[in-house]
Amino acid sequence: MAITPMAKVMIVCHRTQVSDLLAALQAEGICQILNADEAAISKDTPELAAFRDRPKDLEELVVRLERSISFVKENSPPEKGASVFAPRKVVEVRRYNEIVADPQARQALDKAEQTQLALEKTRSEIDHLQSVLDMLKPWATFETPVEDLGKLRTGVSWAGLVPGQHFDAFQQQLTDVGAALQKVNTAGTREAVVVVALRENLEQIQKLLRSYEFEIVSFEPMTGTIASLIREHEQKLVAARGQLDENRKAAAALSATMLKLQVLYDHYRNLLEREQKRDRIPATEQAMILEGWCKKQDYPKLEKLVVRFDAASLSQIQPAEGEDVPVEIYNSPMISPFETVTRLYGMPVPSSVDPTMFLAPFFAIFFGLCLADAGYGLIMTAVLVWVVRKMQGNKGAMVMLLMCGVTTTIAGVLTGSWFSDAIQSLLPPGSGVLKTLDSARQSVMWFDPMTQPMTFFILSLGLGYFQIQFGLFIAFFHNLVTRKDVKAAIYDQLTWIVMLNSLLGLGLSKGGLLPSALAGICGILAIVAGIFILLFSGRDLPWAGRIGMGVFNLFSTVFYGGDILSYVRLMALGMVGSGFGMAINVLVKLVMDVPYVGWLLGALMFVGGHLFNIALSVLGAFVHSLRLQFVEFFPKFFQGGGRLFTPLRNDYRYISIE
Asked: What is the largest distance, in Å, between two alpha-carbon atoms of the chain?
């Protein structure tokens, strides 16, 4: 309903108590503390400085805990009762404090790290043994002990691989220079060979080997025949794989320590944030100065908190001129779910208004019209009720979509759409069920968009015109009542309200929808409003600039027309979704004529097709309803870009404390 009023505060605390004070502030979560480069006192008193000592031990501990949690998760069986909507474990305060205070809890981290190291070492050993075996297998028929290859007195030998397509030429050239070659085996596209040459031909042979892409294979430091080496390494590989299984079992057993690791991670991560904040606030040799913000309604609570520390004092101070005040918004439970839209756009500046209350009904109605199907709305509502009940944390976005599911159902009832035209097209003609359901559908139906598109068109334009006018009225009353800027209210909003309504009245009078006598009155009002826009919309500029700005703003009447036409997307999306649903129903009817299995194929196509249409339509409805707020509605009265209020508070990733 409004932007929360903020109070600028300053807490001065002796160094001996600042850690406990920060812990209390973090637990309460009501005060945003500024860093030294943000605090006004640092600018007024340059000799104050923050002691930017990185808590490296804590940082390392948090990283170790996060790494160990990931390791345990990878090697543990799926948790019973775990849910994507409720990923955090619920822990009682007593249990949380027991784990944090237990000196043995850190042993779970050490055990996890030791198991991870052993597992990685075993995997590395298996990879090494496998690579050695892959290297040895092409030489399995080579009976000479590998250490003998390097014991020739007058000669030199090489074991290696040569491309198969070059083998014959390679062998011929070796023979020509007096070297010998023995083919051992074929390894894929290459041949495993042993080359022997006299030492006096060493340089010439080496050049020849390089020219034929000869890949030397080294058996050092191995000894014995290839067959014995293969057996030895296979035995080692079997033992290593057995050890790997043992390590995996040990890793899986660590799942019993997962809660301890997660509690420790969340605890030390919050402690790390607190320590990082402590090292970034301005300080003297004896005292630390916590400058920041809290909500005015929370100031008494902050006083009670600080008074518990005998070496700390709290005072409320005036913000510096032009200081960036953080912003938080609050709304009633029915409206607060729509804060999701506001936060996606950006927080309002302190001098603006919270748009949530104003956009909420429009967003819900627009979303409903974009889907406009009672069947789809009922499915959305049922699914989202279940999700909200199961979900942890902030449920605002899901509750907002749940409300939009209700408006989708209502819009579908009013337009007679139940899974598009499923009632009319899929039920047997002339049956009593069809007559009953169709009669009930028509009794509550307002209009059929597929046969009366102009009604939908006019409804969309009417809603657009109303929302734009509503935005102008919000800005008018905000300038007039809140900001006390009468000139802005009259020249920037009232003139446009009069201008647009006069042009609308003039058009309706000329079209015969209003008495023709009103045409003259509306024309005069439009001219008067136009003159005010021409002369006063750029009132802070010199006269030449004022007139130029006035002409441009008068031309902006066209832009207002474009904004209103943008709302035709409500009709377009609603009719496209309905048309796609009709196409699905036609296909279902065709498939149902298949003998024996037609009913099954039809049911599958009906469910799959309409679920796909729901997903597509929900995405389109959300995006385009969002766009109408951001592009057409907000610019009329809302100024974003405010800095979000971010108090120091405990944040839990893995657990939820009761």
From this structure: 123
If you search the block for the tokens 């905000």, which residue do you land on?
478
Q: What is the pLDDT of residues 602-650, one digit of tens each?
A: 999 999 999 999 999 999 999 999 999 999 999 999 999 999 999 999 9
SS3 call for 45 = coil
- Cα gap 477→492, rounded to integer Å: 12
533 & 552 share domain = yes
Q: How far is the first Cα of the chain from the last one, in angstroms, to the nearest whole number?
A: 30
pLDDT at 341: 96
Count of domains forming the chain: 4
CA distances for 508 relative to 478, 495, 513, 517, angstroms: 30, 20, 5, 11
Residue 304 lies in a domain: yes
Report how far Cα 488 is from the mean position of its chain's Cα atoms.
39
Which residues have CB under 8 Å from 650's CB, separation 6+?
Answer: 26, 27, 29, 270
Q: What is the pLDDT of residue 315?
A: 94
Which domain covers residue 159, as residue numbers? Answer: 144-224
What pLDDT, in 10s, does the model give residues 502-514?
999 998 888 888 8
- Same domain, residue pair 321 and 351: no
Instruction: Report whether 76 contacts 252 (CB < 8 A).
Output: yes
Strand order, beta sheet including 190-198? 180-187, 190-198, 155-163, 215-216
Three-class DSSP category at 287: strand
Mean pLDDT of 583-599: 89
Q: Does residue 27 belong to any structural domain of this protein? A: yes
Residue 644's beta-bridge partner residues?
Answer: 327
198 domain residue, yes or no: yes
Residue 100 domain flag:
no
Whole-number pLDDT of residue 657: 86
- Both tokens of residue 125? 């050993």
Q: In this structure, what CATH number is given to the domain that contains residue 171?
A: 3.30.70.2750
**pLDDT value of residue 82:** 62
Name the pLDDT band for 323 (thresholds 50, 70, 90): confident
Sheet of 326-327, strands arranged across: 326-327, 640-644, 347-348
